[in-house]
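Can't paste images in this forum, so I'm doing it all in text. The chain is below; anyone willing to post the predicted structure tokens underneath?
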Amino acid sequence: MPQMNMIQALNSAMDIMLARDPNVVMLGEDIGYFGGVFRVTDGLQRKYGEHRVLDTPIAEGAIVGAAIGMGVNGLRPVAEVQFADYIYPACDQIFSELARLRYRSAGDFWAPVTIRTPCGGGIRGGQTHSQSPEGIFTHVCGIKVVMPSTPYDAKGLLIASIEDDDPVVFFEPKRVYRSHREHIPEEEYTIPLGVAKVQREGTDVPIVALARMVQVALQAAETARRTFEEGADGKGGFGLLHLGQSAGGVGTFGDMVDDVTVGAALDHLEVAADAGTDIIQRDGGLFEAVAGAEDGAQLEDQEDRDPGKDEELDQGPVH
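Text version of the structure:
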């Protein structure tokens, strides 16, 4: 079983769907010849042709509008918005047309459109390539919002999204693209949409997390466990971790994280979610969880990292 990072897992999912279903098509800026800014669609146009993997102009509203038309007419389009920061020009098409199509036609029409878009920070992308707008879309009836946390989940969830007859906005956390690898089956598999996954059983503190913060939460839980075993007293609580703004994020109660305590166990491990910053802080140094849950999370000291070896934004035509 090969090891894949999230980019490779997403590419494998789209490769499988293009090979299996002739109605599946891809469209977006630079996804064909160039293979996408992050190389997520690398090689797909060469393999399936320009009529299946289409390069589009820089026009997000047109990309989504064309995808809706394709979906209504029997195709199963996968549209890419190059960065989530630029999805806003397509919001009218998504909110007013795509999300309402099945309801407004009393079930006579639907559009099985999947919209992929990289989101979040952590790659030194600057203020126009680092936004996390997923919370906005969770409040729109008629669309499903997906954000994977691991390469394995990314492949299974993307296949399930493309197969779904209702529209899906698939947010891909850029910070996880190359952060770790997992053993992933080459063959097709799906993960059901809308079902929470219990990553670690426990009895004291429920932690709800998504995307990159899943690995951070797992490491915090392991550190807390080790500290409790050393005799610390803990308190109950509830935590929600998300990478983005603390108010108005997914579920609209991200600011609850600020009040989470697990007693003395976290004297040296502070889980913070404040004004869009989610970090683990230990002994004055910033750490990030970079390993997969199945392989055991590991910490990497940011202060000792070589900036030249950090995950970088692939150079290419962006806007």
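The helical segments are 6-20, 44-48, 60-72, 91-98, 101-104, 134-137, 151-163, 213-229. Residues 204 and 236 are 6 Å apart (CA to CA).
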